[in-house]
Amino acid sequence: MPASSGPPRSERETSDGPAASRPRARRDSFRGVIDLHTHILPGLDDGPETIEGSLEVARAACAAGTRTLVATPHINRAYDVDPPRVLEAAQRLRDGLAREGIELELLTGGEISTGRLPRLSEEELDALRLGDGPYLLIEAPLTSGAWQLTEIVERLQGDGYGVLLAHPERCRGFHRDPALLRGLVARGALCSITAGALTGQFGRTVNRFALELLREGLVHDVASDTHDVHRRPPDVRTPLAAAAAQLPGLDGQARWLTEGVPAAILAGEELPERPPLPSRGWRERLLGRP
Q1: Pairwise CA distance, residues 267 & 83, whole Å
Q2: CA–CA separation, 117 vs 215, rounded Å?
Q3: How far apart are CA 58 and CA 8, in angstroms?
Q4: Confidence class of residue 288 from pLDDT cuts 50, 70 and 90?
């Protein structure tokens, strides 16, 4: 990451702003799946409308093996969401989790669109960091505008932030120009793909692209991007296990993708070494399989 003009975001003083009331990520509590991209907070975006719906998602997440979940509501032009509302909604949900005896650590962040990003102040960006690290979850545009990400990544890195790209496998700009995404990763950006993409939830093109990104070593995290328990459930392990049938050796990276790297991102630590995938055999290369 390029040198910043000040100390890393994970070390900066935030005692006077919204980030001050964020619970600190407990590094020793990161056991089990860490879901870095979710829409679980009630009434903020297109996630659950009520606290009851949020608790239903939380129960399903725990049943699927998730122990730490980061609430990342949409921070875009469509929803009037700012960091104080995120923190308030998260605290209400934490109170509900405690009341219901649901053992789930809830942290906060935000899925920041490229359109909303320039309007956010430094204080607001600090409050939207993932855990105690410097990373921001930046939404890869689903339609147009992927070309802007190179400048955005460079600018954020220059300001001391890290960038985790949300669902790059669904970005049409990357489908047309995979080299653009490779260049972003080479510059230090990380990629978080959606678990549902591995089971074809978003179509065959997205499924194949997600598998190719995994094969190339361009994926650093797999998250649920949950919105509810039925259409977009909070399950990461099951889709990963299903994808391992198409990409042999992926099961050996499962904990790296869902525990090791997410824990490092939240704690602001160096990423652990990636377990290698086995080389493809001549039959797979001949048939063009991932």
Answers
A1: 20
A2: 31
A3: 32
A4: low
What is d(CA 13, CA 148) in angstroms, rounded to the nearest whole number? 30
CB atoms within 10 A of CB 102: 16
- CA dist., res. 101 & res. 181, Å (int): 42
Token code pair at residue 115: 């359109």
The answer to whether residue 289 is domain-embedded is: no
Mean pLDDT of the chain: 89
Q: Which two tokens stand for residue 95?
A: 């109170």
Range of the domain at 231: 30-269
**Sequence-distant (≥ 6) Cβ neighbours of residue 93 within 8 angstroms:** 40, 41, 42, 51, 54, 55, 58, 71, 106
Instruction: Indicate the number of domains in the chain.
Output: 1
CATH number of the domain where residue 147 is located:
3.20.20.140
What would the pLDDT profile of 176-220 be if each residue is shown by its tens digit? Answer: 999 999 999 999 999 999 999 999 999 999 999 999 999 999 999
Tokens of 247: 């990409």
Torsion sign, CA atoms 75, 80, 82, 87: negative
Separation CA 6–CA 61 (nearest Å): 38
Whether 11 maps to a domain, the answer reads no
What is the CB-side half-sphere exposure of residue 165 using CA atoms within 13 A?
31
Tell me the pLDDT band of 1, cut-offs 50, 70 and 90: very low
The answer to whether residue 83 is domain-embedded is: yes
Angstrom CA distances, 2 to 5, 26, 155, 160, 171, stand at 10, 27, 10, 8, 26
Q: For residue 131, how many other CB atoms are within 10 A of its CB?
A: 28
- Would residue 274 count as lying in a domain? no
Task: Report the DSSP beta bridge partners of residue 222.
Answer: 193
Mean pLDDT value across residues 30-50: 93
* Apex 66 CA angle, 160 and 41, nearest 5: 70
